[in-house]
Amino acid sequence: MDLPVMPPVKPMLAKSVAKIPPGMQYEAKWDGFRAIVFRDGAEVELGSRTTKSLTRYFPELVEALKERVPERCVLDGEIVIAREWRLDFDALTERIHPAASRVRTLAERTPASFVAFDLLALADESLLDVELTDRRALLTRALARATPPVHVAPATTDVEVARQWFEQYEGAGLDGVIAKPLTSRYLPDERAMFKIKHERTADVVVAGYRLHKSGPIVGSLLLGLYDDRGALQHVGVSAAFAMKVRAQLIEELEPLRMDDTTGHPWAAWAEEAAHESARLPGAPSRWSGKKDLSWVPLRPERVCEVAYDHMENGARFRHTARFRRWRPDRTPESCTYAQLEEPVRYDLDEILGG
Which is an annotated Pfam family here (predicted)? Predict the structure, then answer.
């Protein structure tokens, strides 16, 4: 491979802001695996956000890119999986598997798509120092004839359209809106863009915690919601605390600490089969590897309010929830899925143009 922009390249990143800023280019924020695509003739490499190779996990996408993108180019975009009418991040994570046979099976069962939203190089020219508006024009021309599973991300400079996308696209599993300065160069690994994500709040049961890697202080709180059968389901964690607060939490939660998980709603967490019928902490994962997933059980009597952006398949927080406050006025039994706001369904085909 011999391209004007060579791997590894870390993608340009975005910083969070509360509102959609005016006077920029706007795109949807895709919920998938960020990937830099390097193509030089028959060679294709998919680099992750951390520069690790994703190529072996998406053989069907490699072949599709050979047929649908320019002979020599470097693209920034997102690998996604669409099922029915929305993105499915869980199906995407299943694609990262060590067994080649399983990779081939999943490539047929849940094929991936690539949504391109920037162009870093074309033919023999690096475009890193080219302004965004010109890179966008080159991207749309270069992929003008691309067909699924390769797409060009919709973009607009109309802030009112961006606000409409922000409200509608969540119903198709998208994450929010990205705003990019029109004259910006491509700056790898720098937060030179802006992201605007949905934030909602929910009251959740604190049913345990994990210790921090630095010592006997709280690393993360384990959060739960009751389903319509009255079972407490593990829905995620809250982990962003100052070190002083982590130590205070240990003392504050000590009266609720259980000697072991006997009698706890998540008592079967260490049994792999139990994860098939319930959401429990410590589920086996290719991502966690040898990471210690043990946790300290608490009597599920305390309620706190957390902020979250959206739910994955309506079952768990897609990202780490942000602790807001304790809710002594709420009972644990009142913390159910029913309180969660459901986004209005929006067909992903409407975004990708069929």
Answer: DNA_ligase_A_C
